[in-house]
Specification:
With about 350 residues, the chain is of the alpha/beta class. Helices cover about 30% and strands about 25% of the residues. The strands form two sheets. It has a seven-stranded mixed beta sheet with strand order 2-3-1-4-7-6-5, covered by helices on one side. α10 links the parallel β11 and β12. α6 crosses α8 and α10 runs parallel beside α11.
Length: about 350
Amino acid sequence: DTLILYCRGGFEKECAAEICATAVRLGAPGYARAAADSAYVSFHLHDPATLPRLLERLRWRELVFARQLIFAAPQVTGLPAGDRIGPLLAVAAALGGPFSEVWLETADTNEAKELSTFLKKFDKPFRLALHGAGKLGDGPALPRLHAFFIDSATAYLGYSLPDQASPWPMGIPRLRMPRAAPSRSTLKLEEAFLEFVGGPQAAERLRAGQTAVDLGAAPGGWTWQLVQRQIHVTAVDNGPMDPALMASGLVEHLRADGFRFRPQRPVDWLVCDMVEQPARIAALVADWGAGRLCREAMFNLKLPMKKRYEEVERCRALIEQRLAGVGIEARLRFKQLYHDREEVTGHLRVLGPR
């Protein structure tokens, strides 16, 4: 009757509010517990009998603030230093299985990172014990087992479903900062492409010869990701662009206002990382979508200090209502990515007339 959701530290309140509202909408209400800066939320069903309904209807990818989603047994406390495996193995047996893999994880906090040495030592014997108990098997369709440690004597054991969970341990993609990229913001767009466009269609939706507009481009962190894919970019910003990017022959730099600029003909991609009020960015993206000026858009919303979940939902409604008003069908999704900070990334895909 417990869900564990990993999130960015400081966003526990937003993650808790979102899962509570989502669970009510799906007919499986409950309550959340979230300690400030703990980087995770536990959600508990009022009625455990509603768990099958939640399993069937809850979509992890539709949650904005959750990096990972785990269906967990009650918290295990007081694990003895001489035999932590025994109690955890008993919980694993109760969870069912077999499982495709086991991940030993902690919250993404400085305090929890101190457990890394313990987890490295614990991983092999725990994995061997699971093998011996017949709890690890082969097959991508099997659920994944998670051991989420709060400290060396306290843990949650649970499972994630392969098509309803992050494919990365702790929900964190391991991306390397490209040496040639002009700013670290390039990692935000790289992760966004993995999250929103990854899969069999990625090669078709991000291919050489396409066209894109980057609003607020300077010095070119997001433009760099597009150029690496041989996409022609119109970089709109009054600031200077990276000289190496300009030398690629794939970038046209326009010193113009990103809110006023419109392309002469539709482009494949709009990307936007401008620092502005979220509602103003949402209105801009809605305008591009309503005018069918782009096929897809990737954009960041810089969130306020308060009512951040409510602000995301307000921006969602603004875009959806604008597109519905002109009869355009589209898919819109938001996610707070690992490389985001006080912001969330939005993705809009314009499909066509309704």
